[in-house]
Design goal:
The chain has 199 residues and is of the alpha+beta class. It has six helices and eight strands; from the N terminus they run ααββααββββββαα. It has a single domain (5-164, 176-189), classed as Beta-lactamase. The chain has helices at 5-14, 28-33, 63-72, 80-88, 150-157, 180-183, and strands at residues 37-38, 44-45, 93-94, 99-101, 106-110, 113-122, 125-132, 137-143. Strands 3-4-5-6-7-8 form a six-stranded antiparallel sheet, sandwiched between helices. A two-stranded antiparallel sheet has the order 1-2. The chain is globular. 19% of the residues are buried.
C-alpha cells in the first residue's frame, strides 16, 4: 500500500469499522483511558511498545471497540470487509485437540457447535474474543494482568467448557466502576439493547 502497517490497518479495518479507540500509536485520549498492566503477583508493569513487531501485539483497543469488531464478525455480512472477515473464519488446518485454524482464528468444535476465537497478550495484559457464528453470540474478556481469561470466555460461550482451576489463592482486588454501556452489550442489536448484568 506504500505506507506502514498502522496506516494499512486504519484505512482497511479500523476506520471502516469506526474503531476510534484502537491503534498502535496512542492519541492523548487513548493514553488517558489506558489502565496499568500487572504481573502474576499483582505488581504494576510497564507498557510494552512493539513497533518493530507490530503484527505480534502492538495493537491496543478498549471494550467498546472490541465489541464493534466482534459485531462485524457475526451475522450476515453487509460489506466487502465483512465478507472478507467471514472467509477468515473458515477452517484451513488441523490444530491441537478439537481446534482447527482459520486465517488467524482458532475454530473449536464442541459437539455440534463451534466457537471461533483468538487471544492475545503483552506484558501485563491479556485479551480474548470469541463467538458462536451460528447462535450469533460473542464474548470479549479484557484483563490488565498476565493471568489469561481464555477459559472464562470459552465457558461463557459454551458452559460445557470448564473454567480452569486457580493456580493459587485469588488476590484481593479493589472494585472498580464500569459504565453501564460496557457492562453488557447485545451485539446483535448493535448496542441498542444494553442491559446491566451481574456475572
Amino acid at each position: 500500500m506504500g505506507g506502514d502497517y498502522e496506516l494499512a490497518l486504519r484505512e482497511r479495518i479500523l476506520d471502516p469499522l469506526e474503531l476510534k479507540f484502537t491503534g498502535i500509536t496512542l492519541n492523548p485520549e487513548m493514553k488517558s483511558r489506558m489502565t496499568s498492566g500487572h504481573d502474576a503477583e499483582g505488581k504494576e508493569v510497564p507498557h510494552w511498545d512493539l513497533p518493530g513487531l507490530a503484527g505480534a501485539g502492538a495493537l491496543l483497543s478498549n471494550a467498546k471497540d472490541m465489541f464493534r469488531f466482534l459485531r462485524a464478525n457475526i451475522g450476515e455480512p453487509t460489506t466487502k470487509l465483512e465478507r472478507a472477515m467471514r472467509v477468515s473464519h473458515e477452517p484451513r488446518e488441523k490444530a491441537q485437540g478439537a481446534n482447527m485454524i482459520g486465517l488467524c482464528w482458532h475454530i473449536l468444535s464442541v459437539g455440534e457447535e463451534r466457537i471461533v476465537w483468538h487471544n492475545g497478550g503483552t506484558g501485563g495484559y491479556r485479551s480474548f474474543v470469541g463467538f458462536d457464528p451460528d447462535k450469533e453470540v460473542g464474548v470479549v474478556v479484557l484483563m490488565n494482568s498476565t493471568q489469561g481469561g481464555d477459559d472464562i470466555g470459552l465457558h461463557l460461550l459454551n458452559n460445557l467448557l470448564p473454567l480452569a482451576a486457580p493456580s493459587a489463592a485469588p488476590v484481593v482486588r479493589t472494585e472498580g466502576v464500569v459504565s453501564r454501556e460496557v457492562t453488557a452489550f447485545d451485539i446483535r442489536q448493535g448496542g441498542a439493547n444494553q442491559r446491566a448484568k451481574k456475572l
